Amino acid sequence: MNDDFSLSGKVAVVTGASRGLGQEFGRALARAGADLIVTSRDAADLASFCEEIAALGRRTHPLALDVRSQESIAGFGPAAIEAFGQVDILVNNAGCNVRKPAVEVTWDDWNLVLETNLRGTFFVSQALAPHMIGRRYGRVINIGSVTSVFGYAGLTPYCASRGGVKQLTMSLADDWGPHGVTVNCLAPGWFKTQQNRVLYENEAWVEYLKERIPLKRPGQPGDLAGAIVFLASDASRYMTGQTMLIDGGITTGSTKATV
Ligand SMILES: NC(=O)c1ccc[n+]([C@@H]2O[C@H](COP(=O)([O-])OP(=O)(O)OC[C@H]3O[C@@H](n4cnc5c(N)ncnc54)[C@H](OP(=O)(O)O)[C@@H]3O)[C@@H](O)[C@H]2O)c1
């Protein structure tokens, strides 16, 4: 492998690594050589994943983090830096969704989604940025979505949060680029996880989805591995502020123009 893609000697934080895509990202980064600090609201939920990563020969450190809590983020920053003495990579993966028609969205729904996905991403990044700036090295990877660039009925707070993450990525890139810290957004398409399990239980919906994806299938485990390693490594050193869509092509626009 080209050495630019090696993460040997690097330490990565992955938030929301108790399941789903957070574990996909952690696995890919560890396989590329990184040691991992992983978070969940309940650190006990990280035990089996830490064992899996340790079996790859990498160090792991579980931390409790609630990205909606100012106090939790304040404790997390120093704990993450202290764990292995450095943090090189941050993957802001922790997130949630509320799926309902816009007229039914409550004040609390809105706050839950925006506080977790957008405010959390900002303040977790801010908690580690002075450390990265001090070392003149850092890779911040915010997790976006196809909803960062497309509107979807039924996902209004989520789309607003993910559009915000795309804009936040550009603004932080401009702010921290002069200090050697890159900030990019990895925007996955549709992957089956706990967050959207209910949709995948409906076969008609899965067929509808596949029809709209040029590569004709939802995302599978491993489909995001190359992109996260690229964004976390020196291979992406001249890239910042960008949103990279890994979505089977669904955001090419899927309206047929032929009959
Ligand atoms: N699945 C997809 O197709 C897809 C597509 C695009 C983007 N995404 C985004 O990718 C990320 C991972 O998605 P997923 O499908 O793997 O979701 P998931 O299975 O629901 O996992 C979400 C993770 O976020 C953590 N989390 C939720 N609220 C949190 C909070 N307040 N503080 C700290 N951690 C919190 C959860 O940890 P605990 O519950 O253990 O605290 C969990 O580990 C999310 O941001 C999601 O929006 C997913």
UniProtKB/TrEMBL annotation:
It is an enzyme of class 1 (oxidoreductase). It comes from the Bacteria. One of its GO terms (molecular function) is gluconate 5-dehydrogenase activity. Keywords: Oxidoreductase. Gene3D superfamilies: NAD(P)-binding Rossmann-like Domain. Coiled coil: none annotated. Its EC number is 1.1.1.69. Residues 10-193 form the Ketoreductase domain. Belongs to the short-chain dehydrogenases/reductases (SDR) family. This is Gluconate 5-dehydrogenase. It comes from Pirellulimonas nuda. The gene is gno.
